[in-house]
Write a structure and sequence with these properties.
20% of the residues lie in helices and 33% in strands. By secondary structure, it is an alpha+beta fold. The chain folds into two domains: 104 residues, Beta Barrel (OB fold (Dihydrolipoamide Acetyltransferase, E2P)); 107 residues, 2-Layer Sandwich (60s Ribosomal Protein L30, Chain: A). The chain has a seven-stranded mixed sheet with strand order 1-5-6-4-3-2-7, with no helix packed on it. The chain has a four-stranded mixed sheet with strand order 8-13-9-12. It is globular, with a radius of gyration of 20 Å.
């Protein structure tokens, strides 16, 4: 056991702690005695992405038969489920079907899934009355609103009602992802507008009036570090 633990740390040492990794790869599912682990390989190394959790979690398991865009930072600690941990990590499932992405690994002794992390309560804005901005984040080339993004819309609507907002501006963005290989992936034209219109529809459905939309046609540049945060919609609520 001591050798296995040391091996995990020693191999991790070969990859610089804090190094940003951005790559496209097939997801790998490793079965365990509790919940499945999700991994991905890049340049001969295996990285740990996360475990299957509830829909409210930040990590959403990728689909097999599709490649995924992995964006994350090498985290401190031993290997998890056989892979170097990335934290924070963003996973985007690419829509094109790839039948070769179908690797399922059986359980192995000592290869256990980590415990499910405890949910973090969102920050509240009670007592605040001035202009406030709420941010919705998206997977690459996608306008799907996940649980966290839906929470941002709900919070924005609640705040707008509380302060009697006169203006609610929804701005959609598209972005570029800089891969570790130097290649750049650019989100498709029109995705910014789809994101903005989708968020505006949700706000109106929650009873918010005076909603305007704006879409940025040009893709923001990628830096290989903050790219996931640029795939977004911002909701500016003004009294």
């Amino acid at each position: 056991m001591r050798f296995a633990w040391c091996f995990g740390l020693c191999v991790l040492g070969a990859v610089a702690l804090g190094q940003q990794k951005s790559f496209v790869s097939c997801p790998i599912v490793r079965d365990t005695k509790t919940v499945p682990c999700y991994l991905a390989e890049y340049e001969g190394e295996t990285y740990y992405l996360g475990i299957q959790q509830e829909v409210t979690s930040e990590f959403h398991p990728p689909q097999l038969k599709h490649q995924v865009l992995v964006e994350g930072r090498v985290a401190e600690g031993p290997r998890v489920c056989g892979g170097i941990p990335l934290q924070p990590v963003s996973i985007s499932v690419l829509k094109e079907v790839n039948l070769s992405c179908n690797t399922l690994l059986p359980p192995e002794p000592g290869m256990d899934a980590p415990p499910v992390p405890r949910a973090v309560e969102p920050a509240r804005r009670e007592g605040v009355t001035g202009p406030q901005e709420f941010t919705m984040l998206y997977a690459f080339d996608d306008d799907y609103v996940d649980y966290a993004a839906n929470e941002a819309v709900t919070d924005a609507a609640a705040y707008a009602k509380r302060i009697g907002a006169k203006n609610v501006k929804v701005s959609g963005y598209r972005a570029t992802t800089l891969l570790s290989s130097g290649e750049r992936l650019v989100e498709k034209p029109g995705i910014a507008e789809k994101r903005a219109q989708g968020a505006a529809t949700l706000l109106r459905g929650l009873g918010i009036s005076g909603v305007s939309t704006d879409a940025k046609a040009d893709a923001e540049p990628g830096d290989g570090k903050t790219d996931p945060s640029r795939r977004r919609v911002t909701i500016l609520v003004t009294p």
